[in-house]
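Hi there, hope your week has been kind to you so far. Do you reckon you could talk me through the fold, stretch by stretch? I've dropped the whole record in just underneath, so have a look:
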Amino acid sequence: MGKLGVFVDRQTLSNSEQLTSLISCRDSAEARGHTVYFIFPVEIKKILTVDALFIRSRTDPMNISFVAAKMAELHGIPVIDDPRSIQICSDKVNMYLHLMQHHVAIPRTVFLSRKELAPARIAQLFTELGTPLILKEPSTSFSLRVEKANTPREFVRTAARFMKLSDWIVVQQYVESTYDWRVGVLDGKFLYACKYIIPSETFKIQATVNGHVVYCAVKSVSQEEVPPVVVNLALAAANAIGRGFYGVDIKESAGEACVIEVNDNPSLEGGEDACYPHIFQEIISHLLERTDV
């Protein structure tokens, strides 16, 4: 039996849902005969003593979780998520380019550089992509620095703010919906599905409205309830990134679907597993019980 390291930090344990999810992960591993160690950043050297690593803190190339992933990879320790997936998914320009190269359906998308922030180009974008436009700063996560622009004035104000953090921004066609599909994919295979129901006050899964943070509701749904076009698109999107663990966000309407983004190491504490009680068993099996490595 193996030793599973679960990389966590204080933020990971910041609420009861996250703690319950971690306990479920531990219990699932121990039920299969494995030993589980929770590893905090100050204990990062302990990664070298485990047989596999499951990162449950925010993954970003600027965070210590990336160091943890890189350390595991360099020592031949299976890790979710791997450094390459983290690098791709944490940069939306990089992520969308991978999807485009693999002909995965996404909203109409343009990458705008700092030098292109001119009235004529902005007017052209509204003509080409419609109104409103969605602007994204490439390093955004949890819907932060994702905003809607209804006019050129709003566009300039938002773009100028985002370009203080990046030389590029992502400009996309607005796709209206009351919910997003979130499809979990592990090693190229379907793992779970749920609906992220968008709060009526916003167009995002998380937003600050009148000084208060509002979150989407999560509804776990069986695979039979998910349109095949959504499942197939999620698998194609995940395979365009790698063979890790991904949460693929998809909007679907009138039988057509497009990928909004691919998230590495997605959350599992919002009720995503209600219809899929064996999620952690699948992840643990992938990390510790594979026969093809």
Q: What stands out?
A: The first helix runs from residue 16 to 31. Residues 89-104+176-287 form a domain with the D-amino Acid Aminotransferase; Chain A, domain 1 fold (CATH 3.30.470.20). The radius of gyration is 20 Å.
